[in-house]
Amino acid sequence: MASQRKIIHIDMDAFYASVEQRDDPALRGRPVAVGSPRERGVVAAASYEARKFGVRSAMPSVTAQRRCPELIFVPPRFDVYREVSRGLRAIFLDYTPLVEPLSLDEAYLDVTENRKAMASATRIAEEIRARIKEETGLTASAGVSYNKFLAKLASDHRKPDGLFVVTPQMGPSFVADLAVGRFHGVGPATTKKMNALGIETGRDLRAQSLEFLQRNFGKSGAFYYGIARGVDERPVRPDRIRKSIGAEVTFARDLHAHEEARAALAPIVARVWSHCQRAATSGRTVTVKVKYADFRQITRRSTLAAPVAGAAELERSALALMHPLFPSPAGVRLLGVTLSSLCAAESSSDPQLALAV
To answer: pTM for the whole thing?
Structure first.
């Protein structure tokens, strides 16, 4: 039974920005964005001081500066972030071999059986957070529960520098009161579709039959049916290999002209590249997905000679694939970009290149 598992989700607090504030005392307590201040730059990460102004990762730099005129931009140092991440992983492995990294700054741990023979997963999470603080000078938030879905929700519940536990008794009611948009695995497009079907909260989702969810959401329907009840049987997979990174947007109105599609593509590319930066990865195969107003769907892909070096190159490749598809008399309701054939990213000698969009 899933309730027998003891799962911890560790999520570093504003990781890139916190590393910069740790290493430069002049940045502490000030709004910081890791990224490029250039006109077509993008925010890779924002400190909590910057987030108070609405600054978020993947946001265009000009928008971020407009929201927070005092915002300080610092170039990324991916070699440093990777080194800190290796230290985090070493701490995790002291407790369990079942560690599933999601990116440089977060991971699942299955501590049902652990190397310290500790009965309490909450106590393990407390120890890990204390060690992270002592060994790196950074803070981490942790969620503890009986499955991955709830552990990840819990880690976000008392951020930053927090710890929250969702017990088997709490699980179903904890999910019921949350908006579906906060569920990991339910993206913006799915949230919009659920809302259109009258599904606003976990309680609304739980009221739907399995058949209804499968009819409207395909193979994901069974997953949504389970998580609405606090059930998630996915194991922690230490050998998990991510095959692709992508993002897509369903538009409120159909797109017809190339210029409006080009403008719509830019924030999608920014989201994909932001995910790549967090995972310290890149890829050689760029895929563009287009869904038309009549729900006909096509994909176009291109494999490059070398991994994509930055968001600007990713955008150029995606635009080249999309260009022949416009103008579109049928109208486009959805655009998506995916990067696959993944590999570890190389640090750019010019940080601005890796962040220009």
So the answer is: 0.73
